[in-house]
Structure to design on (292 residues):
DNA sequence: GTAGGGTCTGTAGTAACTACAGACTCAAGA
DNA sequence: TCTTGAGTCTGTAGTTACTACAGACCCTAC
């Protein structure tokens, strides 16, 4: 009785629902090559099993962590190769972490300028405004080069 | 002699160069309705004066501060109306500042997860990897709802 | 006159989705 | 059985904010 195997068979919308994603995104990832094409039923409907559920979860988690699709593709290639190493995954993740930190630094810069100018703002019904002065001035902020 | 008025007349690429922007972006902003269409010379070349230089600078500064084009459009409408108030500008800027802070919070969340998992990573040539475990797990991170 | 570089307009591509439309499928209800 | 409404399919297009390319025209130095 315990050797009964319960396999999952869900359609696209159900897959999206189970993974907290969007059904169109599922198709998009398939088109992008991140999700392998699943089996189909007689009507041509996609039928997903456990493998696809796991795979999609991986992709979604990585996206949530801010990895680009290309970066996700790289991680998947490591995993798919079957001989990923902790070292390689770590290298990629640290690169990504550095990007995240750079973005934070950028946003903090912006936050500082905004906070400073709004606090200098009288908030009155007057036409003079430090914020507009900032926007009208020569370059005052620095952003990380793209 | 001091009543000599020097007016600026530059073409698109020069305008972009003077403002540190991209000549295609200039056209894009015109198409988007943020930059009024300038005068043209006999050949049909756009000729920009001081007004346009100032206007483009405003837009670029606002973009650097992370305002969306729609938000910039709103700020410009205030300025163009000629009776902007410090109160209204401040309200919009504070809304935007709140967005920036939310983004920072999001990224910090991501940073925390990434830093934690990479530090747990042995960095060795082994197949076990906490980062992949994180990506393979059920939802572990929370993001601000879009 | 020629050549090379600049400007024009229009269109398309990028990244990462998201939505829509017409055609087909499915299942419940009359 | 037929109808209806919802679901799935494929293909295409739209969003945001750019960026690039192509063919046609303009400009200037040689």
């Amino acid at each position: 009785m315990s050797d009964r195997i319960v396999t999952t068979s869900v359609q696209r919308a159900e897959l999206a629902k189970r993974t907290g994603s969007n059904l169109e995104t599922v198709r998009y990832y398939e088109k992008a090559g991140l999700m392998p094409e699943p089996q189909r039923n007689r009507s041509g409907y996609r039928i997903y099993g456990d493998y696809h559920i796991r795979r999609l979860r991986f992709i979604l988690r990585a996206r949530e962590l801010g990895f680009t699709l290309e970066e996700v593709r790289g991680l998947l290639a490591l995993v798919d190769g079957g001989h990923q190493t902790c070292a390689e995954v770590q290298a990629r993740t640290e690169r990504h972490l550095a990007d995240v930190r750079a973005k934070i630094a950028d946003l903090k810069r912006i936050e500082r300028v905004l906070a400073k100018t709004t606090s200098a703002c009288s908030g009155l019904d007057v036409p003079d405004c430090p914020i507009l002065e900032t926007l009208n001035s020569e370059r005052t902020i620095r952003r990380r080069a793209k």
